[in-house]
Design goal:
The protein is of the alpha/beta class. The chain has 19 helices and 27 strands. The longest helix has 18 residues, at about 35-50. It is globular, with a radius of gyration of 24 Å.
Protein backbone atom coordinates (compact mmCIF):
# COMPACT_ATOMS: atom_id res chain seq x y z
CA UNK A 1 0.00 0.00 0.00
CA UNK A 2 1.39 3.39 -0.98
CA UNK A 3 0.97 6.48 1.15
CA UNK A 4 -0.40 9.11 -1.26
CA UNK A 5 0.80 12.69 -0.85
CA UNK A 6 1.47 15.80 -2.90
CA UNK A 7 5.12 15.34 -1.91
CA UNK A 8 7.25 12.58 -3.45
CA UNK A 9 9.68 12.85 -0.54
CA UNK A 10 6.88 12.37 1.97
CA UNK A 11 5.74 9.24 0.09
CA UNK A 12 9.27 7.82 0.33
CA UNK A 13 9.57 8.79 4.01
CA UNK A 14 6.29 7.16 4.98
CA UNK A 15 7.20 3.95 3.14
CA UNK A 16 10.52 3.69 5.01
CA UNK A 17 8.75 4.19 8.34
CA UNK A 18 5.91 1.77 7.58
CA UNK A 19 8.17 -0.98 6.21
CA UNK A 20 10.96 -0.55 8.79
CA UNK A 21 11.49 -4.26 9.42
CA UNK A 22 10.97 -5.51 5.87
CA UNK A 23 13.72 -6.31 3.34
CA UNK A 24 14.28 -3.44 0.92
CA UNK A 25 17.35 -3.91 -1.28
CA UNK A 26 19.42 -6.97 -2.12
CA UNK A 27 22.45 -7.53 -4.28
CA UNK A 28 21.71 -10.82 -6.06
CA UNK A 29 23.66 -13.57 -4.25
CA UNK A 30 24.90 -10.87 -1.84
CA UNK A 31 23.85 -8.58 0.99
CA UNK A 32 20.30 -7.57 1.93
CA UNK A 33 19.40 -4.20 3.41
CA UNK A 34 16.16 -3.80 5.34
CA UNK A 35 14.29 -0.51 5.21
CA UNK A 36 15.77 0.32 8.64
CA UNK A 37 19.27 -0.25 7.20
CA UNK A 38 18.50 2.03 4.27
CA UNK A 39 17.31 4.70 6.70
CA UNK A 40 20.47 4.42 8.79
CA UNK A 41 22.73 4.72 5.73
CA UNK A 42 20.71 7.71 4.48
CA UNK A 43 21.13 9.38 7.88
CA UNK A 44 24.92 8.89 7.76
CA UNK A 45 25.15 10.27 4.22
CA UNK A 46 23.10 13.28 5.32
CA UNK A 47 25.67 13.88 8.07
CA UNK A 48 28.48 13.79 5.48
CA UNK A 49 26.54 16.25 3.31
CA UNK A 50 25.91 18.65 6.20
CA UNK A 51 29.50 18.56 7.46
CA UNK A 52 30.72 19.09 3.89
CA UNK A 53 28.55 22.17 3.42
CA UNK A 54 26.33 20.62 0.76
CA UNK A 55 23.35 22.89 0.11
CA UNK A 56 19.91 22.33 -1.35
CA UNK A 57 20.25 22.08 -5.12
CA UNK A 58 23.89 20.97 -5.12
CA UNK A 59 24.58 18.19 -7.62
CA UNK A 60 25.63 14.68 -6.51
CA UNK A 61 26.95 12.43 -9.32
CA UNK A 62 26.39 8.66 -8.96
CA UNK A 63 27.99 6.13 -11.31
CA UNK A 64 28.27 2.38 -10.84
CA UNK A 65 26.76 -0.91 -11.86
CA UNK A 66 23.41 -1.77 -10.26
CA UNK A 67 23.82 -2.33 -6.53
CA UNK A 68 22.11 -1.51 -3.24
CA UNK A 69 24.55 1.27 -2.37
CA UNK A 70 23.63 3.06 -5.60
CA UNK A 71 20.00 3.12 -4.49
CA UNK A 72 20.93 4.35 -1.00
CA UNK A 73 22.96 7.30 -2.31
CA UNK A 74 20.21 8.23 -4.78
CA UNK A 75 17.60 8.26 -2.01
CA UNK A 76 19.93 10.11 0.36
CA UNK A 77 20.57 12.85 -2.21
CA UNK A 78 16.89 13.23 -3.04
CA UNK A 79 15.71 13.32 0.59
CA UNK A 80 18.43 15.84 1.53
CA UNK A 81 17.35 18.30 -1.14
CA UNK A 82 20.43 17.79 -3.28
CA UNK A 83 20.07 16.94 -6.99
CA UNK A 84 21.22 13.42 -7.89
CA UNK A 85 22.93 13.04 -11.26
CA UNK A 86 22.82 9.32 -12.14
CA UNK A 87 25.38 8.43 -14.83
CA UNK A 88 25.14 5.23 -16.86
CA UNK A 89 28.11 3.08 -15.94
CA UNK A 90 28.38 1.85 -19.54
CA UNK A 91 29.43 5.34 -20.65
CA UNK A 92 33.05 5.77 -21.66
CA UNK A 93 35.33 7.53 -19.12
CA UNK A 94 35.52 10.70 -21.22
CA UNK A 95 31.72 10.92 -21.30
CA UNK A 96 31.46 10.34 -17.54
CA UNK A 97 34.04 13.07 -16.91
CA UNK A 98 32.16 15.42 -19.23
CA UNK A 99 28.85 14.79 -17.43
CA UNK A 100 30.41 15.35 -14.00
CA UNK A 101 31.82 18.67 -15.21
CA UNK A 102 28.77 19.77 -17.19
CA UNK A 103 26.38 19.00 -14.32
CA UNK A 104 28.48 21.01 -11.82
CA UNK A 105 28.58 18.00 -9.50
CA UNK A 106 30.52 18.59 -6.29
CA UNK A 107 30.61 14.98 -5.07
CA UNK A 108 31.06 11.81 -7.13
CA UNK A 109 30.04 8.41 -5.80
CA UNK A 110 31.42 5.78 -8.19
CA UNK A 111 32.11 2.06 -8.30
CA UNK A 112 35.71 0.91 -8.07
CA UNK A 113 35.77 -0.35 -11.67
CA UNK A 114 34.50 3.03 -12.89
CA UNK A 115 37.09 4.89 -10.82
CA UNK A 116 39.91 2.87 -12.39
CA UNK A 117 39.09 4.35 -15.80
CA UNK A 118 38.66 7.98 -14.69
CA UNK A 119 41.28 10.72 -14.50
CA UNK A 120 40.27 12.80 -11.49
CA UNK A 121 42.28 15.81 -12.66
CA UNK A 122 39.93 15.98 -15.66
CA UNK A 123 37.15 16.92 -13.19
CA UNK A 124 38.70 19.95 -11.44
CA UNK A 125 35.49 21.22 -9.84
CA UNK A 126 34.83 17.97 -7.95
CA UNK A 127 35.17 18.47 -4.22
CA UNK A 128 34.97 14.85 -3.10
CA UNK A 129 35.17 11.36 -4.61
CA UNK A 130 33.79 8.35 -2.70
CA UNK A 131 33.94 4.68 -3.72
CA UNK A 132 30.37 3.45 -3.85
CA UNK A 133 31.27 -0.19 -3.27
CA UNK A 134 32.35 0.36 0.36
CA UNK A 135 31.90 4.13 0.95
CA UNK A 136 35.65 4.64 1.29
CA UNK A 137 37.00 8.14 0.73
CA UNK A 138 39.10 8.36 -2.45
CA UNK A 139 39.77 12.08 -2.52
CA UNK A 140 38.52 15.32 -0.96
CA UNK A 141 39.52 18.96 -1.00
CA UNK A 142 37.42 19.64 2.07
CA UNK A 143 38.94 19.03 5.50
CA UNK A 144 35.45 18.90 7.05
CA UNK A 145 34.47 16.08 4.71
CA UNK A 146 37.57 14.13 5.71
CA UNK A 147 36.85 14.63 9.43
CA UNK A 148 33.17 13.72 8.99
CA UNK A 149 34.02 10.42 7.34
CA UNK A 150 36.75 9.66 9.88
CA UNK A 151 34.35 10.21 12.79
CA UNK A 152 31.08 9.23 11.12
CA UNK A 153 29.92 6.73 13.74
CA UNK A 154 30.68 9.21 16.51
CA UNK A 155 28.71 11.96 14.75
CA UNK A 156 25.85 9.55 14.13
CA UNK A 157 25.78 8.63 17.84
CA UNK A 158 25.58 12.28 18.84
CA UNK A 159 22.81 12.99 16.35
CA UNK A 160 20.80 9.92 17.43
CA UNK A 161 21.72 9.16 21.06
CA UNK A 162 18.88 6.67 21.53
CA UNK A 163 17.97 3.60 19.49
CA UNK A 164 17.62 4.75 15.88
CA UNK A 165 13.94 4.21 15.03
CA UNK A 166 11.27 5.42 12.59
CA UNK A 167 10.52 8.43 14.78
CA UNK A 168 13.85 9.96 13.71
CA UNK A 169 12.91 9.98 10.03
CA UNK A 170 11.95 13.48 8.90
CA UNK A 171 13.14 14.44 5.44
CA UNK A 172 13.09 17.80 3.74
CA UNK A 173 10.06 18.24 1.43
CA UNK A 174 10.21 19.66 -2.07
CA UNK A 175 9.10 23.30 -2.02
CA UNK A 176 7.38 23.29 -5.41
CA UNK A 177 6.19 20.57 -7.83
CA UNK A 178 8.33 22.24 -10.53
CA UNK A 179 11.47 22.13 -8.41
CA UNK A 180 14.24 20.20 -10.16
CA UNK A 181 14.57 16.77 -8.54
CA UNK A 182 17.35 15.29 -10.65
CA UNK A 183 19.36 15.58 -13.85
CA UNK A 184 19.38 12.49 -16.05
CA UNK A 185 21.66 12.43 -19.05
CA UNK A 186 20.26 10.82 -22.19
CA UNK A 187 21.82 7.71 -23.67
CA UNK A 188 23.27 9.59 -26.59
CA UNK A 189 21.75 7.76 -29.60
CA UNK A 190 22.22 10.91 -31.67
CA UNK A 191 25.51 12.14 -30.29
CA UNK A 192 26.56 13.67 -27.03
CA UNK A 193 24.31 13.29 -23.99
CA UNK A 194 22.02 16.11 -22.87
CA UNK A 195 21.14 16.70 -19.21
CA UNK A 196 17.39 16.31 -18.77
CA UNK A 197 16.07 18.35 -15.85
CA UNK A 198 13.38 16.22 -14.19
CA UNK A 199 10.99 18.02 -11.80
CA UNK A 200 9.42 16.46 -8.73
CA UNK A 201 5.98 16.57 -10.37
CA UNK A 202 7.21 14.25 -13.16
CA UNK A 203 8.68 11.71 -10.76
CA UNK A 204 5.62 11.78 -8.52
CA UNK A 205 3.31 11.44 -11.54
CA UNK A 206 5.24 8.36 -12.73
CA UNK A 207 5.08 6.83 -9.25
CA UNK A 208 1.30 7.38 -9.15
CA UNK A 209 1.02 5.87 -12.64
CA UNK A 210 2.89 2.77 -11.45
CA UNK A 211 0.68 2.58 -8.37
CA UNK A 212 -2.34 2.39 -10.66
CA UNK A 213 -1.03 -0.12 -13.23
CA UNK A 214 1.39 -2.13 -11.05
CA UNK A 215 -0.86 -2.28 -8.00
CA UNK A 216 -0.17 -5.99 -7.53
CA UNK A 217 3.30 -4.96 -6.32
CA UNK A 218 3.16 -4.41 -2.56
CA UNK A 219 5.21 -4.92 0.62
CA UNK A 220 5.20 -8.70 0.07
CA UNK A 221 6.48 -8.50 -3.51
CA UNK A 222 9.87 -9.24 -5.04
CA UNK A 223 11.15 -7.38 -8.10
CA UNK A 224 14.31 -8.10 -10.09
CA UNK A 225 16.20 -5.06 -11.36
CA UNK A 226 17.88 -5.94 -14.66
CA UNK A 227 17.94 -2.56 -16.43
CA UNK A 228 20.52 0.14 -15.66
CA UNK A 229 19.35 1.99 -12.54
CA UNK A 230 20.75 5.22 -13.94
CA UNK A 231 18.31 5.00 -16.87
CA UNK A 232 14.85 6.48 -16.16
CA UNK A 233 12.96 3.33 -17.20
CA UNK A 234 14.78 1.00 -14.82
CA UNK A 235 15.13 3.62 -12.09
CA UNK A 236 11.45 4.47 -11.93
CA UNK A 237 9.82 1.06 -12.34
CA UNK A 238 12.40 -1.40 -10.98
CA UNK A 239 13.49 0.66 -7.98
CA UNK A 240 11.88 3.97 -7.01
CA UNK A 241 8.24 2.91 -7.26
CA UNK A 242 9.02 -0.27 -5.32
CA UNK A 243 10.55 1.83 -2.52
CA UNK A 244 7.27 3.73 -2.16
CA UNK A 245 5.21 0.56 -1.57
CA UNK A 246 7.63 -1.45 0.58
CA UNK A 247 8.61 -4.04 -2.03
CA UNK A 248 11.92 -5.94 -2.06
CA UNK A 249 14.25 -5.04 -4.98
CA UNK A 250 16.91 -7.53 -6.07
CA UNK A 251 19.72 -5.96 -8.12
CA UNK A 252 21.44 -8.15 -10.68
CA UNK A 253 24.99 -6.98 -10.03
CA UNK A 254 26.46 -9.12 -12.82
CA UNK A 255 26.02 -8.79 -16.58
CA UNK A 256 22.31 -9.51 -17.16
CA UNK A 257 22.59 -12.17 -19.88
CA UNK A 258 19.34 -14.02 -20.73
CA UNK A 259 20.52 -17.15 -18.87
CA UNK A 260 21.37 -15.16 -15.71
CA UNK A 261 18.07 -13.30 -15.91
CA UNK A 262 16.00 -16.48 -16.28
CA UNK A 263 17.82 -18.11 -13.36
CA UNK A 264 17.18 -15.08 -11.15
CA UNK A 265 13.51 -15.02 -12.16
CA UNK A 266 13.13 -18.70 -11.26
CA UNK A 267 14.66 -18.13 -7.82
CA UNK A 268 13.16 -14.74 -6.89
CA UNK A 269 9.77 -15.07 -8.62
CA UNK A 270 9.18 -11.35 -9.32
CA UNK A 271 5.70 -9.87 -9.18
CA UNK A 272 6.28 -7.61 -12.17
CA UNK A 273 8.92 -7.73 -14.91
CA UNK A 274 10.33 -4.67 -16.65
CA UNK A 275 12.21 -5.50 -19.83
CA UNK A 276 13.65 -4.07 -23.01
CA UNK A 277 12.69 -5.76 -26.30
CA UNK A 278 16.13 -7.31 -26.78
CA UNK A 279 15.66 -9.79 -23.93
CA UNK A 280 12.23 -10.95 -25.12
CA UNK A 281 13.29 -11.03 -28.76
CA UNK A 282 16.31 -13.21 -27.96
CA UNK A 283 14.06 -15.70 -26.19
CA UNK A 284 11.71 -15.70 -29.18
CA UNK A 285 14.41 -16.05 -31.83
CA UNK A 286 16.77 -18.45 -30.05
CA UNK A 287 14.33 -20.68 -28.17
CA UNK A 288 10.96 -20.47 -29.90
CA UNK A 289 11.53 -19.74 -33.58
CA UNK A 290 13.60 -22.91 -34.29
CA UNK A 291 10.92 -25.02 -32.59
CA UNK A 292 8.07 -23.27 -34.41
CA UNK A 293 9.75 -23.61 -37.82
CA UNK A 294 10.09 -27.43 -37.73
CA UNK A 295 7.83 -29.17 -40.30
CA UNK A 296 5.90 -31.13 -37.65
CA UNK A 297 5.08 -28.07 -35.54
CA UNK A 298 4.19 -26.00 -38.62
CA UNK A 299 1.73 -28.74 -39.61
CA UNK A 300 0.19 -28.91 -36.15
CA UNK A 301 -0.16 -25.12 -35.98
CA UNK A 302 -2.46 -25.34 -38.99
CA UNK A 303 -4.85 -27.59 -37.04
CA UNK A 304 -7.10 -25.48 -34.76
CA UNK A 305 -7.18 -27.90 -31.80
CA UNK A 306 -3.47 -28.77 -31.95
CA UNK A 307 -2.58 -25.11 -32.55
CA UNK A 308 -4.35 -24.06 -29.35
CA UNK A 309 -2.76 -26.87 -27.32
CA UNK A 310 0.79 -26.09 -28.54
CA UNK A 311 0.39 -22.37 -27.89
CA UNK A 312 -0.92 -23.07 -24.39
CA UNK A 313 2.10 -25.27 -23.67
CA UNK A 314 4.48 -22.60 -24.97
CA UNK A 315 2.78 -19.94 -22.86
CA UNK A 316 2.97 -22.12 -19.74
CA UNK A 317 6.67 -22.83 -20.33
CA UNK A 318 7.46 -19.15 -20.93
CA UNK A 319 5.50 -18.07 -17.87
CA UNK A 320 7.34 -20.60 -15.73
CA UNK A 321 10.74 -19.46 -17.03
CA UNK A 322 9.91 -15.92 -15.89
CA UNK A 323 9.23 -17.13 -12.35
CA UNK A 324 5.56 -17.96 -12.78
CA UNK A 325 4.19 -15.31 -10.40
CA UNK A 326 4.38 -12.11 -12.44
CA UNK A 327 1.26 -10.11 -13.21
CA UNK A 328 2.68 -8.66 -16.39
CA UNK A 329 5.85 -8.17 -18.45
CA UNK A 330 6.17 -4.51 -19.46
CA UNK A 331 8.37 -3.99 -22.52
CA UNK A 332 9.79 -0.57 -23.33
CA UNK A 333 12.92 1.38 -24.16
CA UNK A 334 12.95 0.56 -27.89
CA UNK A 335 10.73 -0.74 -30.69
CA UNK A 336 9.46 -4.31 -30.29
CA UNK A 337 9.85 -6.74 -33.19
CA UNK A 338 6.50 -7.06 -34.98
CA UNK A 339 6.69 -10.82 -35.55
CA UNK A 340 7.53 -11.47 -31.89
CA UNK A 341 4.76 -9.07 -30.83
CA UNK A 342 2.19 -10.95 -32.91
CA UNK A 343 3.33 -14.36 -31.66
CA UNK A 344 3.38 -13.50 -27.95
CA UNK A 345 -0.06 -11.97 -28.35
CA UNK A 346 -1.37 -15.09 -30.10
CA UNK A 347 -0.33 -17.43 -27.24
CA UNK A 348 -1.89 -15.21 -24.55
CA UNK A 349 1.41 -14.29 -22.87
CA UNK A 350 0.91 -11.60 -20.22
CA UNK A 351 2.93 -8.76 -21.70
CA UNK A 352 2.44 -5.24 -22.92
CA UNK A 353 4.50 -2.62 -24.73
CA UNK A 354 4.77 0.89 -23.33
CA UNK A 355 6.28 4.09 -24.68
CA UNK A 356 8.33 6.72 -22.96
CA UNK A 357 11.52 8.73 -22.93
CA UNK A 358 13.94 10.22 -20.44
CA UNK A 359 12.33 13.63 -20.98
CA UNK A 360 9.06 12.29 -19.52
CA UNK A 361 10.61 10.45 -16.56
CA UNK A 362 9.79 8.22 -18.58
CA UNK A 363 6.19 7.18 -19.29
CA UNK A 364 4.09 8.60 -22.12
CA UNK A 365 1.77 5.78 -23.22
CA UNK A 366 0.69 2.40 -21.85
CA UNK A 367 -2.14 -0.15 -21.97
CA UNK A 368 -2.62 -3.18 -19.72
CA UNK A 369 -1.80 -6.55 -21.31
CA UNK A 370 -5.51 -7.37 -21.46
CA UNK A 371 -6.15 -4.19 -23.48
CA UNK A 372 -2.99 -4.05 -25.61
CA UNK A 373 -3.12 -4.13 -29.38
CA UNK A 374 -0.42 -5.65 -31.57
CA UNK A 375 1.85 -2.97 -32.97
CA UNK A 376 0.66 -0.33 -30.52
CA UNK A 377 2.32 0.96 -27.36
CA UNK A 378 -0.92 1.90 -25.63
CA UNK A 379 -2.69 5.20 -25.07
CA UNK A 380 -1.79 8.34 -23.15
CA UNK A 381 -0.79 7.70 -19.54
CA UNK A 382 -2.67 9.49 -16.71
CA UNK A 383 -1.89 13.23 -16.58
CA UNK A 384 -0.47 13.09 -20.11
CA UNK A 385 -1.82 14.13 -23.54
CA UNK A 386 -0.62 13.01 -26.96
CA UNK A 387 -1.13 14.66 -30.34
CA UNK A 388 0.21 13.91 -33.81
CA UNK A 389 1.58 16.75 -35.93
CA UNK A 390 -0.17 15.61 -39.10
CA UNK A 391 -3.17 16.70 -41.17
CA UNK A 392 -4.48 13.13 -40.92
CA UNK A 393 -3.16 11.79 -37.57
CA UNK A 394 -4.96 8.44 -37.97
CA UNK A 395 -3.37 7.55 -41.29
CA UNK A 396 -0.42 9.84 -42.06
CA UNK A 397 2.47 9.69 -39.56
CA UNK A 398 3.55 12.91 -37.92
CA UNK A 399 5.71 13.86 -34.98
CA UNK A 400 4.41 12.63 -31.63
CA UNK A 401 4.03 15.62 -29.31
CA UNK A 402 3.11 15.40 -25.63
CA UNK A 403 2.01 17.57 -22.75
CA UNK A 404 1.41 16.89 -19.06
CA UNK A 405 2.87 16.39 -15.60
CA UNK A 406 5.56 13.95 -16.78
CA UNK A 407 7.38 16.38 -19.06
CA UNK A 408 10.81 17.76 -18.26
CA UNK A 409 11.78 21.32 -17.36
CA UNK A 410 14.33 21.38 -20.18
CA UNK A 411 17.98 20.56 -20.81
CA UNK A 412 20.55 21.67 -18.24
CA UNK A 413 22.59 24.67 -19.43
CA UNK A 414 21.26 24.28 -22.96
CA UNK A 415 18.69 26.96 -23.73
CA UNK A 416 18.75 26.36 -27.49
CA UNK A 417 18.00 22.61 -27.16
CA UNK A 418 15.30 23.40 -24.58
CA UNK A 419 13.65 25.93 -26.85
CA UNK A 420 13.78 23.52 -29.79
CA UNK A 421 12.23 20.73 -27.66
CA UNK A 422 8.90 22.56 -27.26
CA UNK A 423 6.38 23.96 -29.71
CA UNK A 424 5.18 27.55 -29.45
CA UNK A 425 1.99 26.37 -27.73
CA UNK A 426 3.87 24.35 -25.09
CA UNK A 427 3.84 20.76 -26.40
CA UNK A 428 7.04 18.74 -26.10
CA UNK A 429 8.47 17.34 -29.32
CA UNK A 430 9.46 13.69 -28.99
CA UNK A 431 11.24 13.37 -32.33
CA UNK A 432 9.29 10.16 -32.92
CA UNK A 433 6.76 9.60 -35.70
CA UNK A 434 3.44 7.90 -35.18
CA UNK A 435 -0.30 7.73 -35.71
CA UNK A 436 -3.25 7.58 -33.29
CA UNK A 437 -6.23 5.35 -34.02
CA UNK A 438 -9.81 6.35 -33.27
CA UNK A 439 -9.53 4.93 -29.73
CA UNK A 440 -6.37 6.88 -28.95
CA UNK A 441 -3.95 3.95 -29.31
CA UNK A 442 -0.50 5.08 -30.43
CA UNK A 443 1.44 3.34 -33.20
CA UNK A 444 5.07 4.41 -33.58
CA UNK A 445 6.53 4.45 -37.09
CA UNK A 446 10.09 5.50 -36.29
CA UNK A 447 12.32 8.42 -35.42
CA UNK A 448 11.77 11.55 -37.50
CA UNK A 449 15.53 11.96 -37.88
CA UNK A 450 15.81 8.33 -39.11
CA UNK A 451 13.12 8.69 -41.76
CA UNK A 452 14.47 8.33 -45.31
CA UNK A 453 12.93 10.30 -48.13
CA UNK A 454 12.18 8.09 -51.13
CA UNK A 455 12.93 9.02 -54.77
CA UNK A 456 9.51 10.58 -55.25
CA UNK A 457 9.14 12.03 -51.79
CA UNK A 458 7.85 8.87 -50.08
CA UNK A 459 8.49 8.49 -46.35
CA UNK A 460 10.51 5.33 -45.62
CA UNK A 461 10.79 4.15 -42.02
CA UNK A 462 13.96 2.01 -41.72
CA UNK A 463 12.90 0.49 -38.40
CA UNK A 464 9.98 -1.26 -40.11
CA UNK A 465 12.28 -2.83 -42.71
CA UNK A 466 14.84 -3.80 -40.06
CA UNK A 467 12.12 -5.57 -38.11
CA UNK A 468 11.58 -7.89 -41.09
CA UNK A 469 15.29 -8.40 -41.82
CA UNK A 470 16.01 -9.29 -38.19
CA UNK A 471 13.69 -12.29 -38.44
CA UNK A 472 15.53 -13.75 -41.43
CA UNK A 473 17.89 -16.75 -40.98
CA UNK A 474 21.31 -16.06 -39.45
CA UNK A 475 20.65 -12.35 -38.86
CA UNK A 476 21.53 -11.05 -35.41
CA UNK A 477 20.70 -7.39 -36.11
CA UNK A 478 20.53 -4.95 -38.98
CA UNK A 479 20.52 -1.28 -39.88
CA UNK A 480 19.01 0.21 -43.02
CA UNK A 481 20.65 3.40 -44.26
CA UNK A 482 20.45 5.76 -47.23
CA UNK A 483 23.70 5.50 -49.19
CA UNK A 484 23.68 8.09 -51.94
CA UNK A 485 20.00 7.63 -52.68
CA UNK A 486 20.11 3.84 -52.44
CA UNK A 487 18.82 1.74 -49.55
CA UNK A 488 21.57 -0.42 -48.06
CA UNK A 489 21.22 -3.01 -45.29
CA UNK A 490 24.08 -3.30 -42.83
CA UNK A 491 23.82 -6.78 -41.30
CA UNK A 492 25.64 -8.35 -38.37
CA UNK A 493 25.26 -12.11 -39.02
CA UNK A 494 25.02 -15.06 -36.65
CA UNK A 495 28.39 -16.58 -37.58
CA UNK A 496 28.13 -19.41 -35.05
CA UNK A 497 24.66 -20.47 -36.13
CA UNK A 498 25.55 -20.27 -39.82
CA UNK A 499 28.69 -22.35 -39.25
CA UNK A 500 26.69 -25.09 -37.52
CA UNK A 501 24.56 -25.33 -40.65
CA UNK A 502 27.50 -25.56 -43.03
CA UNK A 503 27.90 -21.88 -44.02
CA UNK A 504 31.57 -21.55 -43.10
CA UNK A 505 32.94 -18.94 -45.49
CA UNK A 506 32.35 -15.21 -45.80
CA UNK A 507 31.13 -15.71 -49.37
CA UNK A 508 28.51 -18.28 -48.27
CA UNK A 509 27.23 -16.00 -45.51
CA UNK A 510 27.05 -13.01 -47.83
CA UNK A 511 25.18 -15.09 -50.40
CA UNK A 512 22.69 -16.15 -47.72
CA UNK A 513 22.18 -12.52 -46.68
CA UNK A 514 21.49 -11.56 -50.28
CA UNK A 515 18.91 -14.37 -50.43
CA UNK A 516 17.33 -12.96 -47.28
CA UNK A 517 17.17 -9.47 -48.74
CA UNK A 518 15.58 -10.82 -51.94
CA UNK A 519 12.79 -12.30 -49.80
CA UNK A 520 12.42 -9.05 -47.83
CA UNK A 521 12.22 -7.02 -51.06
CA UNK A 522 9.24 -9.10 -52.18
CA UNK A 523 7.28 -7.48 -49.35
CA UNK A 524 8.56 -3.95 -50.02
CA UNK A 525 7.18 -1.33 -52.42
CA UNK A 526 9.62 -0.38 -55.19
CA UNK A 527 10.70 2.86 -53.54
CA UNK A 528 11.87 1.09 -50.35
CA UNK A 529 13.57 -2.01 -51.77
CA UNK A 530 17.05 -2.80 -50.48
CA UNK A 531 19.65 -2.42 -53.24
CA UNK A 532 22.71 -3.70 -51.40
CA UNK A 533 24.04 -5.57 -48.38
CA UNK A 534 27.10 -4.91 -46.27
CA UNK A 535 28.21 -7.54 -43.75
CA UNK A 536 29.35 -6.06 -40.43
CA UNK A 537 32.29 -7.79 -38.69
CA UNK A 538 30.99 -7.02 -35.19
CA UNK A 539 27.75 -6.04 -33.54
CA UNK A 540 26.62 -2.43 -33.75
CA UNK A 541 27.67 -0.01 -31.04
CA UNK A 542 24.76 0.59 -28.72
CA UNK A 543 23.51 2.76 -25.91
CA UNK A 544 23.05 1.17 -22.47
CA UNK A 545 19.37 0.56 -23.23
CA UNK A 546 20.53 -1.43 -26.28
CA UNK A 547 19.49 1.02 -28.99
CA UNK A 548 21.88 1.14 -31.95
CA UNK A 549 23.81 4.41 -32.23
CA UNK A 550 22.62 5.10 -35.76
CA UNK A 551 24.54 8.32 -36.21
CA UNK A 552 27.81 6.35 -36.20
CA UNK A 553 26.80 4.30 -39.26
CA UNK A 554 24.64 6.68 -41.26
CA UNK A 555 27.51 8.00 -43.34
Amino acid sequence: MMYVSDSLIEIIEESIKHNWNRPALSDYKGITLYYRDVARKIAKIHIIFRESGIKQGDKIAICSKNQSNWAVVFLASLTYGAVPVPILHEFKPSNIEHIVNHSDSCILFAGSIILEGLTLTHMPNLNTVICLDDFSLIQTKNKDTYLAMEHLNELFGKAYPKVFGPEYISYRRESDPNEMAMINYTSGTSGFSKGVMIPYRAMRSNVLFAYKVMNSVDEKSNVVSILPSAHMYGMMFEFLYEMTVGAHVHFLTRVPSPSVIVKAFEEIKPKIIISVPLVIEKIYKNRLQPFLSTPGVRFLLRLPIADKRIKTQINDTLTSSFGGEFEEVIIGGAAFNKEADSFFNSIGFKYTVGYGMTECAPIIAYADWKEKRVGSCGYAAPRMEIRIDSDKPRTIPGEIQVKGDNTMLGYYKNEIATRDAFTEDGWMRTGDLGILDKDGFLYIKGRSKNMILGPSGQNIYPEEIESIINNMPYVVESLVIDDGGKMVALIYPDIEGASRDGLTTAAQIEAKMNENIAIVNEEMPNYSKISGVKIMPEEFEKTPKRSIKRYIYQN
